[in-house]
Known about the structure:
It is a single chain. 35% of the residues lie in helices and 20% in strands. It has 283 residues and is α/β, with parallel strands linked by helices. It has one domain (4-136, 212-282): Alpha/Beta hydrolase fold, catalytic domain (Rossmann fold, 3-Layer(aba) Sandwich). It has an eight-stranded mixed beta sheet, with helices on both faces. A two-stranded antiparallel ribbon has the order 7-8. A hairpin with a 2-residue loop joins strand 7 (190-193) and strand 8. Helix 3 (101-112) packs across helix 7 (215-224) and helix 5 (163-173) packs across helix 6 (179-189).
Amino acid sequence: MPPESRFYTSQRLQMHYLVWGDEANPPLLLIHGNRDHARSWDRVASALADRYCVYVPDLRGHGDSAWAIGGDYSIIDYALDIHALGEHINRAPYVVVAHSLGGSVALQYAGAFPEKVSKVVNIEGGGMHWMSDKRRPAHVRMRRWIESERQLEQREPRVYPTIEDATERMIEANKHLTPELARHLTETGVREVEGGYSWKFDNYTHAGSPYEFNMEDARDLWNQVRAPILTLWAEEGWGRFIKEVDISPFHNIRTVKVDDAGHWIHHDQFEVFMKHVNEFLAE
């Protein structure tokens, strides 16, 4: 059965989400990464819908959710939207499975509202890779952010003449994708415009924020999380940058390295991914 399409409101924005499965089952949220979309989770949602009611939001500026006026796309904005969705559904606590940016959002949400999250699967996200990053001075961050915002004002969405052209770009971004999956992700991730097709995400999602999430705040938020956490890293993804990650702020976390996969572990090694997720959720 195809998912049901629904809407809710956050900060005056109309937000879109999908519902898979029977709402009598326990609730589970799937949160996608930056410049991705809810339909990217179709295989995962379908595999979980026999046991859970799966709720899959399009983050603001992505998929079929509204674009933020002025281009406010920081992690705190996304976390607020997820909280608004949780309140709209009103079925907490939630199991949360999240990818990349979505993992950062999930841990912020779980840290601010630990009673609303029962388990977290964090795929190549959570911001823990920032631990080894050297912080840039505030004046440098502010100047570069302002310059990038001004540049984005002049940027037009790229238009692909055909679905095949857009699919080629999808495969170029992730060579692990099968042709069938690349086509599906493309067809569900573009909208028809004059001259062809363009991706559904807002270009301003490239901008981020000049205010870096400092580790003092991060450790405080992460220390509040009481839900068990499974973190998955890919050998060809961000995992290649992570040597020694300080996970001491967390109370209950395990990490797994997945071979032969890039940043999209749930696409590149679907069966391996689902095995780890199913085992974790069954505990």
